[in-house]
Task: structure prediction
Amino acid sequence: MTFFRDAGRSLQEACRVLHMKVSTLAQWNGLFDETMRPFVVPDRRGKAAKVTAALVRKVVDIAMEFIAAGKRLRLKAFTRHLAEQEIELSSKTVGEILTANDLYGVQVKKRRPGFYQNLRQTLPNGLVAVDGKEFVVVLGADTHRFNLELCVDVKSFVHSGYSVAETETSQEFIKVLEMHRQAWGNPLAVVMDHGSANLSDNARTYLDHHDIVMLPAGPANPKGNGTVEGAFSEMAEVIGTICIDTSNPRTLAQNILEKIASVYMTMRNRLPKLGATLSPLGEMAMPVTEQQRVELKQRYRQRARKQAGPDESSKHARINWVIGHHQLAVDEPTLKRAIKCIAHYDIEVIAKAEAAFNRAISRDERKKNLPYFFGILKNMQGEADTARHKEYCRHRYEYEQMLARERLVEQENKEQLSPHVMVDMLHAAITLPIASIKEHAMRQVDRMAEELKRQYRQLGILKKKILEALASFDNISVAHRQEMVVWTEELTN
Result:
């Protein structure tokens, strides 16, 4: 801030004194002048223009003038130009309007996968989360890095097992699960990332032997294993980088880290989480019936089956058919990567890519490889995503469609039931001479009255409008008028 610079202190020193972030003080510095007077920033929240057909027409006309003048439509600059003409719209809305009217090219970023399933469970020792994180120990001038493998119960947040080693391996994965089993028994399922150590044959054999369901989180998806990630965040905040000014051997560094992790886990398990009444240890010790465990185990099995649903299975069959039919040379890691990637593409696009791949290799045999097929698939998926987004923009902001929708709404508003229409129907029903027909007409009037009640929240306003409509009738007898007034009083009471 200007104040701290004048006082001879740097921004970093000011942050240390105030215990604040540098970005926060830097933002404040832009809100005050040299004399510490605040700049007046106009607040435009809630004042954006409503997008109507007329407004879309105006934006399109201004954009066409831009193009006719030889200027290039740059979204942010054009949005600022509209603001100068008192058209307050976000750049996203402006882009969708221009895209819908074929004045701006759309670009769609890949947004798959985007679903994170909540891991919060109802039973302790039902689902456990396992993951590893690198910790650093500095001994004098030497830096040592270790992998800390951690096992956490999702329901109770109890930290039930840990292991310190050079790297994340299947042996460490099994070791922390075995520590959990020795303390609390077999869990029903385990969630972990897609690392090779967690999905190795040894790990699968161990889980199958103890009847533990495997629930891998999505690739590159830390939120899918959020329980243990949150535990690591708390642990890293408490421990951080361990710096020891000594020349002791590496074993001492490992023992220090193991001791700190042990202390942290012991203390953490005694403290309840925010909003909880029991500590993790107390919650883990709560009795659970065998029926509850069986039901929850069934839910885990169903979730595991959903991860390999029929759609994903068909996609896997597609890529396997392409490889087998064309006899493509593919090694094991490449095949695993292909099966993992193919699940994120649309099944219709995969079919079109197969046809295009067949045409390409019929012309040139050198293109007969898996990377070329995925290149075609990626381009076609991008075109499909772009077309879908453009269709969305057209449906929402294309001028002719907006104009048609506004006309339809206006027509529906005109045809909407009004008190005058109901009073006309009431007058016709009361003056009918035949009792049976009059009774049928009055039932229709009652239905119209119920519809009007739903339109008007205040019955007093509805009564006033009905009486005003009654006053407009001239050629009506006193008896009929009195009957209509009595009916109105009964309706609004």
Summary: The first helix runs from residue 2 to 6. Residues 139 and 175 are 27 Å apart (CA to CA). Residues 310-376 form one domain.
